[in-house]
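Lab manual, section 2.4: Encoding a predicted structure.

Procedure: take the sequence of the chain (319 residues), apply the prediction step described in section 2.3, and record the output as structure tokens. A sample record is shown.
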Amino acid sequence: MQRENEPHCAKQKILRGACSLAKLSMMSARPFLTNEPPGRRDAFSPAAVAAALLVLWLIATAPAYAWGPTAHRLTNRWAVDTLPPEIRAFFQANREFLIEHANDPDAAMKKDKHERELHYIYLDKYGIFPYLKLPHSFDQAVERYGSGRIHRDGMLPWQVGKISLRLTEAFKTQNWEEVKLDAALLGHYVADAHDPLHTTQNYDGQLTDQVGLADRFEIRLVDKFSSFFMFARRDASKITDPTEYAFDMVLESNTWADHIILADREALIGLPDYNEDYYDRFYSQVGSIVVRELSGAANDTGSYWYTAWLNAGRPELPH
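Recorded output:
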């Protein structure tokens, strides 16, 4: 395997090793969890139980993945081109700022333990598509499932709505530095909503023996082929309900999750590892999805920016 794939390979080995350790630990802990005779039970240490639970906890709380830096920068770069003349000049003048800060939310995960839950929503934990059991009202969702579960299974659509409102307030108060920063952050979360793997609990292929899928799809594939991407631009338009529209985004991207998981499996058939041939095969099957979703993310980001400005009363922007 090429040198650039070594960290990825190491990550796979660590996670697979953790799974194996968990299985061995649970086998050792079995006498303590069942009604086996005391003689056999005494042959094992209670530490096995703690070890198994610890390993399983580490697996369950693995870091959330996301589009990589390249994809987020592309989203904010392209989004500027969707805007109408009334506001495009302001965003054009600050395009580099928007690009530079496109990945700030990912960096925030290192400092804020609650940031991770804002980047995904495990829709498939709420039944079958289109997940009608999950209320789109945050208060109603918490009332039905409890705050703990809602936070644990992801807050992404509500986060998009929250940052959209925050951007609107920044426009109203004409806090232009806050406008720039909130616009950059909003683009990040909108892009995450267009990531199919951010809508499923099998986000890294860990449930189907495809550990590392997120890295391969969201980062490596984009980095390898982004120079070939062609932005399918559309004009920004007003969004009636920012949170409800965010749910529309995650539902649409969720429809591609199974296709990506299957394509990843098929692309590896007959190959010794995730080499260049694998990526060529994978891109041939999912490249159009990547371009579609990143274009959608940029178009929707532009619409969210435009909507915040409209809802703020169309303030005059600085030159």
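Check your result against the sample. The chain has 15 helices and no strands.
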